[in-house]
Write a structure and sequence with these properties.
about 325 residues; alpha/beta; Arc Repressor Mutant, subunit A; three-stranded antiparallel β-sheet; 12 strands
């Protein structure tokens, strides 16, 4: 690996972080009030110093190479630590807080996000919460569009999910194990039951989250995706799935954790199946989390523990 005589500068790291965020050298130059040739030269010099291509340039702008994605994770860490030093010893105001989270459609993930935002002390922040498809969660975290992803594994999808994560340089960290539940509207006759069986679900519309081009059973958000249902409706967002539970008497299978505050019309009923859902977060294996990401995950654990579920990690 080639090393420049004078090493890396903080300014270069800040420039690089902005270029990665904007996906464009000229846009980053505008944001930071720097001339474009200056920014362009700084990026070339940075790549020369680290001896690796960090940016893939095209007519549409720039994207991160695999080395660039890893470098970005470390650059964010360094800049965050310097800002903490400046706050503590130079009396600087807390800087703009940044965090991206990509997740399957879980209300606890939104609940935790709400808590994190309410508790943030930053004068400025820019947070992103993407409820999206399984494949896209992995891709978002791989490219550092999001720092943290939240999804599930079970005996059925584990090998496929683990291979995808391994190939992307990501690691899965268990948060909790959930017993499968069905979500139904409170007006549904099943809502009054202590438990439900697969036989109880026959004839009811099964509601599932659409996985787009990657609609393989392994990417389904719902366990038992290979079981056939006579009535199946695919949706793309959580508000719609809840509306269809209420309007059509449909159900979906999930963790059993549903926010009474955010989703008061939905009930969770334990499902009689010999399965467990392992919910976890994914991140880059080689890159430590920023403090903001740690804060978010602490809120996730607190929300889950509030439902009486044992938090494992």
């Amino acid at each position: 690996m080639a090393h420049g005589a004078s090493g890396l500068t903080l300014q270069q790291l800040r420039y690089f972080i902005e270029v990665a965020a904007e996906g464009s050298i000229s846009a980053a130059a505008d944001v930071l009030y720097v001339a474009q040739p200056t920014m362009s030269a700084a990026m070339k010099d940075l790549e020369a110093r680290v001896g690796r291509a960090l940016l893939a340039r095209s007519s549409r702008g720039v994207s991160l190479t695999d080395d660039g994605a890893e470098f970005l994770g470390y650059a964010r860490q360094v800049v965050e630590q310097v800002e903490l030093l400046e706050q503590r010893y130079l009396g600087r105001a807390p800087s703009r807080r940044l965090l991206g989270v990509s997740t399957q459609h879980y209300s606890f993930a939104v609940d935790a996000f709400v808590r994190m935002v309410r508790d943030t002390d930053a004068a400025e922040y820019e947070f992103a919460l993407r409820e999206t498809r399984t494949w896209d969660i992995i891709e978002d975290v791989r490219t550092l569009r999001s720092e943290v992803g939240i999804l599930y594994r079970n005996d059925f999808n584990r090998k496929v999910i683990d291979k995808l994560l391994r190939d992307a340089g990501l690691a899965f960290h268990t948060i909790f194990l959930a017993q499968p539940h069905i979500f139904v509207a409170r007006s549904n006759p099943l809502a009054g039951r202590e438990r439900a069986s697969l036989a109880d679900l026959e004839g009811l519309p099964r509601l599932t989250f659409d996985q787009g081009a990657n609609n393989s059973f392994y990417f389904a958000e719902e366990i038992l995706s290979t079981l056939s249902a006579s009535h199946e409706i695919r949706v793309s967002d959580r508000a719609t799935i809840f509306n269809l539970m209420i309007g059509l008497g449909g159900y979906t299978i999930s963790t059993g954790i549903v926010s009474g505050e955010l989703d008061p019309q939905i009930a969770a009923i334990p499902l009689d199946v010999d399965e467990r859902i392992e919910i976890g977060w994914i991140g880059h294996a080689a890159i430590p989390l920023t403090l903001q990401a740690e804060r978010y995950l602490d809120e996730v654990r607190a929300v889950v523990a509030g439902f009486g579920v044992e938090v494992l990690g």
